[in-house]
Design goal:
Elements: H1 3-25, H2 29-58, H3 61-96
């Protein structure tokens, strides 16, 4: 199971990259919100992959309950980030056209 730790590291790196990129964008709120929504996608993927890894390692009832909660929270972050990325992506295209 090498794929899950790779996903964990990559999603955490992408989350941190997007958060730092928000600081560099300056005064443009539309680009900041768009970048923050991409960070939410990475955070959701991170939460889901960490919770799956916890369950694979421990395989107890407590780990199962924690995994279920984190999958729900991570999935909500991922879905919200995806929807806002699509919305603000269209707004950026219209503004740049």
């Amino acid at each position: 199971m090498v794929i899950i730790p790779i996903i964990i590291v990559l999603s955490l790196a992408m989350y941190l990259l997007y958060k730092v990129q928000i600081l560099r964008l300056g005064e443009d709120p539309l680009k900041q919100v768009y970048t923050n929504s991409k960070a939410r996608i990475a955070l959701g993927l991170f939460m889901v992959s960490v919770s799956m890894n916890v369950y694979i390692v421990y395989q107890t009832k407590l780990a199962l309950y924690i995994t279920i909660v984190f999958i729900i929270l991570g999935g909500a972050q991922f879905i919200y980030g995806y929807k806002t990325t699509r919305f603000y992506g269209k707004q950026l295209k219209e503004r740049n056209s």
